[in-house]
Amino acid sequence: MAEMRFVTPMAALLVERLPSGDAWLYEAKFDGYRALVMKDGAKVRILSRKGHDLTADYPSVRDAVAALNAKSALLDGEIVAFDESGRPSFQQLQHRSARVTAIRYFAFDLLHLNGADLQSEPLMARRNALQNLVSRSGVEFSDELPGSAHQVIQAVAQVGLEGVVAKRRDSRYEPGKRSGAWQKLKVKQRQEFVIGGYKPEDRNFQSVVVGYYDGKTLRFAARVRSGFTPAQRTALFERLRPLKTETCPFADLPTGKTGHWGEGVTEEDMKILKWVKPTLVADIAFTEWTREGHLRHSAFVGLRPDKHAGDVVRE
Asked: What number does CATH give the domain 190-311?
């Protein structure tokens, strides 16, 4: 009997074009929190990609997993919140607002079942076992999306999902690896960035200064002004205030010029900006990278407490 324990989740390689052909299947890339769920008898644990225990945060997911017809199981998937229109909402997952109608766990892989380690089995065998396990339960199964790569991308964009994940049907589960057997395409460009400063305004902030790590060097990416709800702005400001520091954490500021969409920071900007210790990670949407390595048309989506600042690099 194989020991069931936490493993670092397998990662998908970010690509600009999805692979095609019968060797690949497509799934929706949900806008939520990646989580492993572990059932061992009557005990259930929900663990983040870093192994942090989230069980107390998601009682509905815990109860759904507890009801599965298995003595033991380890599932990989995504915790997703839905708003009143039935659309996934990452912001509402963070804030658990009154408009959230459901929080569900979408399982897309099964690593252990009743003492058997399935990680070396082909993906399709694992998915078949997973579908049998979660059918008629409170755990959702991440269905395969029918159609060509182009058709799948169009369908995902129309319903407002984050992107598409392509997986080789014969792929083994490779903990912690980004081997290319799984590939992801984002309909809108999004990634995590580290918050290193902000521009104050009216006892709050007007924008936040974000960047990414290049080795141990924090590099500037953008000044993000849009996307904040009033509640998010207030809550984030309360998180930023105790992190204030006199030292600019970015190695490449000032940039010498600025732009309408916050692509740069001038010497004059440096006199106004307030700096913070680079510990908070934010999910940022944007249209493209500029030639200078900055973001264009950036917007705040939400904080990522499940991500460590030191792991944030340019994707």
From this structure: 2.40.50.140
